[in-house]
TrEMBL record, chain A:
CDD domains: TM_PBP2. Gene3D superfamilies: MetI-like. This is Carbohydrate ABC transporter permease. It comes from Xylanimonas protaetiae. PANTHER family: INNER MEMBRANE ABC TRANSPORTER PERMEASE PROTEIN YCJP, MALTOSE TRANSPORT SYSTEM PERMEASE-RELATED.
Length: 297, 283
């Protein structure tokens, strides 16, 4: 340290050295933070440019993309909301996702509770099967179910897509629930049992109220999965057009020879808002669930 | 009994929408049929022969392999570098972490449309940057090789947040004492990573590699949406989907290709479960 050569009392030298070291460390960590912040911006550039350019006039967008728009307009948004079926796509997406989420919440909550509290052979087999289910090619289920739904005449409804969204979300949501229930002490239910509650009553009145934040994260995970999904939607919600969700609708901006980039950018920006807000609300819980899902299984 | 009753709704749902269609799919693969008329007689292994003789299937296999390896490597490296940087306490750490997870949160249709727009021919942002620095514009969606590169980049973009979050959780559970001891002994950062940190995160990394491989093989959306179903970027899922729904004798041939994919994934899933039993438990 250069400070050690300075003429000063022994105590002063120690203080100076510490201060210099602390300063250098602070500069270094701030430097790192700035670099990481820039990396974050570059990685999100596709989304940032989409949002920024959605406010530019159509012709300016075609001429090329610059970071700062020189003319700002809401025309693209007006066109999307006024002349396309965007509001309808949005409502379809929300409806399908909400129904799927409600079923997932109940089914995975019950199963997650069972996995957390009872170590039976059925549960260990079931737990392994959930892992395997998550790895299955979805195409196989889509094709098999399509034949079934064609034969019973349900292909022109939301039912097939909702069923698939439920089973897609189930494995991961069950693990998330199991993790949250594991962190609630068993003694609480045991006390309720002693007081004369049945197992079911003990679960409903003691554990369910405590699972609130966990349930919110699970619900948002299931909602986002359904809201964001494309392949199932393209199999079951493409025809008739009244079933189209956002994922399907957004592709209609690609015409045969031209692409309505202006409207597409505006519609994309609108479509991103709900997932963005929901994710920010529960990000802490969801990040924890994401990390646990890969490790535990 | 109570424990089984609790899991019953899930078991019924999964049985109906996963196990049953899978068994159906396997039986369809040995029959002649189309979506509207599934069972038109048993044909033995004919459908499998058709798939294995179809050059388009082998193109799909080849693309799937390149896409998977490229995507897994790139997303792992990106996720690991960022996890190592973010695991230390730095200012704005929470904000940066949330920002880096956004590509995982947004709908794939939006992410892929944005990339498609950025990678456009002349007016695209990427080509504007390239020409600004005096380079030749790259026509990502006309050149078959560049199409593959574009799909791999987009896949890594969507997948790295999962790697980042999982690796950060693992890194933060490690014991810092060994690293401190190594610093006192004068080891440099690179050496510390290779001989101390990496061996400790290897079990978790192996799980992530296999998991991401399986998810990449299953990924229909990234190549399909980014390239607008370009013939240069058709993986096994797209092949199966298109053949089953639109192909001649589609259901039989498509199901056969799905069963082949399922067999490959089954082997990977087996390794995955082994790895989790071996190394994942302490995580």
């Amino acid at each position: 340290m250069s400070t050690s050569t300075m003429p000063a009392t022994a105590a002063g030298t120690v203080v100076d050295t510490h201060r210099a070291r602390a300063n250098r460390r602070r500069v270094l960590t701030w430097g790192k933070a700035v670099v990481l912040l820039l990396v974050m911006l570059v990685i999100n550039m596709p989304l940032i440019l989409t949002a920024v350019n959605s406010f530019r006039p159509r012709l300016d967008i075609m001429a090329g993309s610059t970071l700062m728009p020189e003319r700002v307009t809401l025309d693209n948004y007006r066109a999307v909301i006024g002349t396309t079926h965007y509001p309808e796509w949005f409502l379809n997406s929300v409806w399908v996702s909400l129904v799927a989420t409600a079923v997932v919440l109940v089914a995975s909550g019950l199963a997650g509770y069972s996995l957390s509290r009872y170590r039976t052979r059925v549960n260990s087999v079931y737990s392994n099967m959930l892992m395997v289910f998550q790895l299955f090619p979805l195409v196989l289920s889509i094709v098999g179910l399509m034949v079934l739904f064609v034969s019973v005449g349900l292909t022109k409804t939301f039912v097939p897509a909702i069923v698939l969204y439920i089973v897609m979300a189930l494995p991961f949501c069950t693990w998330m629930f199991k993790g949250f229930f594991d962190s609630i002490p068993r003694e609480l239910e045991e006390a309720a049992r002693v007081d004369g509650c049945s197992s079911f009553r003990a679960m409903i009145s003691v554990v369910v109220p405590l699972a609130g934040p966990g349930a919110a994260a699970v619900a948002i995970y299931a909602f986002l999965l359904a809201y964001n999904e494309y392949m199932v939607a393209s199999a079951f919600l493409k025809n008739p057009a009244s079933l189209n969700t956002i994922s399907i609708g957004l592709r209609s901006f690609f015409q045969q020879n031209t692409t309505e980039w202006g409207q597409m950018l505006a519609a994309s920006t609108l479509a991103v808002l709900p997932p963005l807000v929901l994710f920010l609300l529960v990000q802490k819980w969801m990040i924890r669930g994401m990390a646990a899902g890969a490790v535990k299984g | 009994m109570f424990s089984i009753n609790l899991a019953l709704p899930s078991i019924l749902l999964l049985g109906f929408a996963q196990i049953w269609p899978m068994i159906q799919g396997i039986t369809y693969s040995f029959q002649k049929g189309v979506m509207a008329k599934p069972s038109q007689g048993w044909v033995g292994l004919e459908n499998y022969r058709t798939v294995l003789r179809d050059p388009a299937f082998w193109d799909a296999v080849q693309f799937t392999i390149v896409f998977t390896i490229g995507g897994v490597v790139l997303s792992y490296v990106l996720g690991l570098v960022l996890a190592l940087a973010l695991v230390r306490n730095i200012p704005m750490r929470g904000f940066i972490r949330v920002g880096l997870i956004l590509p995982w949160v947004v709908p794939p249709i939006v992410g892929m449309n944005s990339w498609r727009w950025m990678l456009q021919d002349q007016a695209g942002a990427v080509n504007q940057v390239i020409t600004f620095f005096g380079g030749q514009p790259i026509f990502f969606f006309n050149d078959p090789d560049m199409t593959v590169v574009a799909v791999i980049i987009a896949k890594a973009w969507r997948s790295f947040p999962f790697m980042l979050v999982s690796l950060m959780a693992t890194l933060s559970s490690l014991d810092d004492n060994i690293l401190e001891a190594a610093s006192i002994d004068g080891a440099n950062a690179w050496k510390k990573f290779w001989s101390i940190t990496f061996p400790q995160i290897l079990p978790m990394s192996a799980i992530l590699w296999v998991l991401m491989t399986i998810w990449s093989v299953n990924d229909y959306e990234t190549p399909y949406l980014l390239t607008n179903n370009s013939a240069n970027a058709r993986n096994m899922m797209i092949y199966t989907f298109d053949t089953s729904i639109f192909g001649l004798n589609g259901l039989g041939v498509g199901s056969a290709s799905a069963v082949i994919t399922l067999a490959v994934l089954g082997v990977l899933a087996y390794f995955m479960l082994k790895l989790q039993k071996a190394g994942g438990n302490e995580g």
